[in-house]
Amino acid sequence: MKFGYRERCLDHDTGTRHPETADRLRAIRRGLARRYGVVYEEGDLADRAALEAVHDPDYVAAVEEFCADGGGTWDADTVAVEDTWEAARASAGLACWAVEAALDGADGRETPFSIGRPPGHHAESDEAMGFCFFNNAAVAVQHAIDDGAIDRAVVFDWDVHHGNGTQEIFYDRDDVLYASIHERGLFPGTGEILETGGPNARKTTLNVPFPGGSGDVEFTAAVDDLLDPAVERFDPDLFVVSAGFDAHRNDPISRMRVSTEGFGHLTTRVREIAGRHDAPLAFVLEGGYGLDALADSVGMVHEVFDGREPVDPDGEVTSKARRVIADVRDAHDL
Ligand SMILES: [Zn+2]
Q1: Which structural domain, as residue segments, surrounds residue 241?
Q2: Which residues of 160-198 are buried (b: 16+ CB within 10 A; e: fewer)?
Q3: 182 is catalytic
Q4: What are the two backbone dihedrals, phi and then psi, of residue 239, each rounded to the nearest 5 degrees?
Q5: N or C: which end of the chain has fewer CB within 10 A?
Q6: Residues lining ligand 1 (ion), CB within 5 A?
Q7: What is the pLDDT of residues 209-218, one digit of tens each?
Q8: 122, 248, 302, 332: which one is catalytic?
Q9: Tens-place pLDDT, residues 132-183
Q10: Domain count, the chain
Q11: How many A from CA of 247 to the centre of ligand 1?
Q12: CATH classification of the domain holding 253
């Protein structure tokens, strides 16, 4: 794969007790150093216009000022230093790079994956939260739409948390399908099945709030039984994965049970679905806080594009997860 990375993203210093640290990117890069065919690119810092296309200009200015004043605690989870302003713009810029590269034809072994931080999917149009300042995936998708490069995009978010920010930004839009699998009851508490989009959207928000303990078979079933038909109906020109790896069984902050091989399997499925629609495919890093699990999982995604065929997950979908899938299917007429 082609990975988007900038040293600048390490400068967002969250302190020693925070799960979202620069060590995450260092771990990913150490893992990738052992693998063949890894290429890095830098992208540009996202400019103000790109940020303001999805964020309130007053909010963008407030983040800039907060950082210029030395940063501090925005909320209990979300902290900044002076360098966070540039790191956050670098992270959003890397997501834009990934989408542009995909739209320029980077696929197969060249498929782009931006590994920026801070992450983005909790950032709303006018609020930072959950370690996120700018919604990297949303900025990138909106940029492609505003450029006239695409009309319709899917954002598939397999991070264990609900991407409330991405949902909020696109909630009343029929040109972006936001689909999320997340652990019910975790931060930020949004992402109910019946949150399906605003009056102008056509059920273009699809939430799969699984119970803790769900793993490879449940995630695969959600992709096959819900995401696949929803994407079929939507017919996107672009497919972005908000790729967090905190649903991994060895991640310290969730109770989900997805394996490294399971992330490989999900990657295979996503690749098939995007391919069927000729939708360019780009990955944007979100969370993932077990350093080994994170590095192994990103390495696995890379290997899938390098020809590895992960084994199919084995086992039965739990009855609780089956009920969630049935309810989502009902809510979306799938
Ligand atoms: Zn997360």
Answers
A1: 2-332
A2: bbbbbbbbbbbbebebbbbbbbbbbebbbebbebebbbe
A3: no
A4: -130, 115
A5: C
A6: 159, 161, 244, 246, 287
A7: 999 999 999 9
A8: 122
A9: 999 999 999 999 999 999 999 999 999 999 999 999 999 999 999 999 999 9
A10: 1
A11: 8
A12: 3.40.800.20
